[in-house]
Hints:
By secondary structure, this protein is α/β, with parallel strands linked by helices. Among the domains are: 1-38, no CATH class; 362-449. Helix content is 46%, strand content 8%. It is built from 19 helices and 9 strands.
Amino acid sequence: MSKLLPLPDFDRVSFDDLKVFTLQQDGLINALLDDLARAKGLKARPDVKPSGMEDGTDDARKPGSPRTSKGAKRRKNGGRKGSVRTADLTIHADKILKPDGVPTGSRFKGRKRFVVQDLVLQPHVTRYHREVWRTPDGKLMIAPLPDGLTGHYGPNLIRFILAQSNECNVTEPKLLDQLHAYGIKISLSQLNTLLTENKGEFHGEKREILVAGMETATALTTDDTTARHQKRNCTTTQIGNQHFAFFETTESKSRINFLKIILIAGTTCFRVTEAAAEYWREHHLPGGMVAALMMAVGKSFPDDASWEKHLISLGVTGEHHRRTASEGALWAAITEQGLLDGIVIVSDGAPQFDVGDHARCWIHAERLIYRLPCATPEQHKLVKKIRTRVWKLYRALKAYAKAETIDPVAKRNLRAWFERIFTTFTGFAALDEVLDGLLAIREKLLRVLDRPDTPLHTNSSEGDIRARVEKRKISGGTRGDEGLRCRDTFASIIKTLRKHGISFWDYLGSRFHMPGPTVPPIGDIIRAAAGTG
Length: 533
């Protein structure tokens, strides 16, 4: 059992030393309570982590040290010069305030600054008087509108509407009420038009996100979630890494759709090449059918209709055979364009993502063990023991990846460690079955040993795609194709900008040629962050 510390000489110690003693003594008392609980066969006290509101107790921070959780000294707040909150603010107006009833003979001692931030929300209506002239040849000349003005709503209003809808998830009816409260005359149909129509520049930039992201990527993570469109269940797929996030919604979560999403970064088509034949053989397409398909070797089919017509002409009518043939032709197009060359795709194990150089997420793999139903205390102990060993291996793999170099000795030891864990026979049939299944995908789980740049999990994709889940819960589904396209486009732009610390508000202002920061093309931002721009 733990022993309590001897009492200090309270007449000689400082307050800080006394505080340290109190913290240490509290820890020993808690350890004694845990020892007593274990001796009585009771559960020990739960290890509750600080919420962030409590004072830190780690050794790195001395008691009484005026530092934040990040280690930087707290600076004084308020409106004074050098303040953290107001030092970088642009001052729009200065007002001098004088006290009333200053006694005669008082001396002026200067001014004390006090900064107030406010927001001006009010309509600003401009009426343009466009001169009209008739030229000598009888034609009419009319003065053009200012640059950037294309309709009866100004760029700052459109900027506000796009930010509220796409970044703040304000629904269209609520946004309409908000605009009416500010005095803006606009209908629901006009609002919908501003949100969805004439967004070709943004759609082009969304595609450039995927192009630049795949040009610079060595590894990608991917995930998907349900989406509602025209009262049907669809699927939104996310592809990204630390530099970008790309969203695309399709009618189903099939491998064909995933391959078509990758081809957005290049030219979408169906190709018949040796890469297609290799794919067909690996996926057990009958040899006679592969030979018939290879009669069109070197040919390209630009769309679904032409490819389907080709399959029908060859007598490929079975659903499985048609799907496998289409996947192989799409994969051949990806291979020919080099879209996935040198890129590892990390997924949660969903079959549609199993293409190319594929790795598996450790978090989802361990979840199979965590979710096992246990009927006895012995089974609970076995699951806990295996999970502890798995997480120790995971931390070792994480440390190996941080080194960013391949260490042959460490690589061999980690692979042997993996084998020892997942070849363990526990006697718990369900657990042994899960371990055998994970052992079968060892190469996908241990891809990091050969490629230290491979992520060990898909947490970034799950975090990115959560925004689409929130949007679906708040606004429901989309009704028009343009609305769905805009939802994917602005989600891709917003998430990518956040990864680089750029405000979506500043981005919109830059695209509408308004005063303020200039945001370069997002593709250039991605390339610069990856060190290739």
